[in-house]
Design goal:
Layout: H1 11-14, H2 18-25, H3 32-40, H4 42-60, E1 62-63, E2 72-83, E3 87-97, E4 117-129, E5 132-139, H5 141-147
Antiparallel strand pairs: 1-3, 2-3, 3-4, 4-5
Length: 175
């Protein structure tokens, strides 16, 4: 029998205890027990949200304290816990600096490091949908872009040159 290739761990697995990784992985297709545990054990939900979000954040923004705030990932206990009958949510923040810190050369949206301090605000929602475990991450992108000195423009791009006019447009109406 041919050997199965070694599975590359997902980024969240690297920030999570091995026995917990096995527990989560074994329940992804039948998540009732996983969700029950996340709702029952708040620290487990917080650690799973942290393991899910921290690896990409640390690749974009170096962990460091800002204005008497400890650097890195933290959660808000007042806005973390069970939601509805079958979900759990974790509000979190990442405090760091937008500079070169990743060995692989990844950057946030291909934006050159600005040296600016940032606080990324997010919310992770974990629950079941169609019998599968689902994780949704909501991030305040507008707030993050503003901290980086960028702006968002919701206008539809318009071509700089007007379209060619047909010869028929030059005709008088009713001709």
């Amino acid at each position: 029998m041919p050997e199965e290739p070694e599975r590359t761990p997902a980024p969240w697995e690297l920030d999570f205890p091995p026995e917990e990784v096995e527990f989560v992985r074994s329940r992804l297709d039948d998540p009732a027990e996983l969700i029950a545990r996340l709702r029952r054990e708040g620290d487990f939900a917080i650690e799973l949200a942290r393991a899910d979000t921290r690896p990409i954040l640390v690749s974009w923004f170096r962990q460091m304290g800002i204005e008497r705030r400890e650097g890195g990932w933290s959660h808000d206990p007042e806005r973390t816990g069970p939601i509805g009958p079958s979900a759990v949510g974790v509000e979190w923040n990442w405090v760091g600096k937008h500079d070169e810190n990743d060995k692989e050369g990844r950057t946030f949206n291909d934006i050159a490091p600005s040296g600016r301090s940032v606080t990324v605000h997010g919310f992770t929602l974990m629950g079941a949908e169609d019998g599968r475990f689902m994780v949704r991450r909501y991030i305040d992108w507008a707030g993050l872009f503003a901290q980086l000195g960028l702006s968002l423009n919701w206008r539809t791009p318009v071509a700089s040159e007007p379209p060619d006019r047909d010869a028929t447009e030059d005709e008088e109406p009713g001709a």
